[in-house]
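This section describes the prediction task in plain terms. A model, or a person checking by hand, is given the sequence of a single protein chain and must write out its three-dimensional structure as a string of tokens. No templates, partner chains or ligands are provided. The sample shown here is typical of the held-out split.
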Amino acid sequence: MYHRKESRYLRIIKHVLLTLSLLSPFMVWGQQEDAQEIIRVWQTRDKASQLRLRLSNNFNDVVAVEELAQLYYYDFLDMNGGVRFADADRWEPDEEGRYNFPHREPAFDQCADSALWYLLHLWSRNPEEYEYLYYPIVQLENFLALEHVSYILPPEDSYTRKFFPDSYFVCFSLEDWEHNYTIDLLLAMKNARNYARNMSSLLADMDEKELYSSKVTIMEGVFRVTITGLGFCQLFLLESEGDKHVVCYKEGQLNPQRSIDGNYHYSQTKNKRKDLTDDQWKEFVKLLDSVVLEDLPHYSTCMEGTDAQVYLFEHLRHDGYQAHLTGCPNEAQRQLITFLYQFFGISR
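The expected answer:
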């Protein structure tokens, strides 16, 4: 009986949506916007009903839980004039890091509460796997004026021997993220985690050492740039100690046989090592200084380079570690990369 009523209810919704879509070309602009809003709300509610029906049959359907959490969370963003992660590079936030789009009518009366409930349900299943959920959970708790739950991030020393923390390459500024209700911390943090893990796996495959939690003691500094493309990677590592400056160059190819576990794994195809002369070292330092790596964000919102390559710059010095990821290197970064290519006689 319940399923027949549900089916009839959905048919009515679809009939209303079809009618509105057919009438919309004949409406004036304001009426078209109203019709589109009605369609958006009904489609959102329809999708939520389908997902809740899936969960009623199988409450362990993690995919349905995650999709519901995202659906309610996006309704929360729309209500606050926010921007979704996929659209973040198309718009500029204000001075406080907020986007402030027109606030939409929420599809659900309790969208923030519902989003928080489903996010906490995911977290409780596996706190380590869903570490990235910490950020939207705190964001929602502040919006709802709730006391913070006891979920906290691992201590900083837990990142020892890790290439990057899971959330290192987030595209949004983390300044006052706890009270910024216009940024999509759910997908931003998830993508950051995925990239950090994939790049950590690649560097481990290339037999590279981690720099994030390392300390510069004897050596003056370490610089590394990793270039990834479709099925290949190139890596330059420069180490300096006293008057000795060494550059290592490695190439890797995607290894399908090693990637059967669902992750991407690489195999080394080249490994070269050369010393820099004093003049070459001075030229390199000049180029590196012009990049001003310490002033760049960890993640550039421009991730669609013209050559379909992504560049990860890392620099470890006495005053700390800095990384910058971009698909659109600026002129200073390109000159630095060109210098390294020419040094090893590599054609791009």
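For orientation: The domain at 206-343 is CATH 3.30.1560 (Mago nashi protein).
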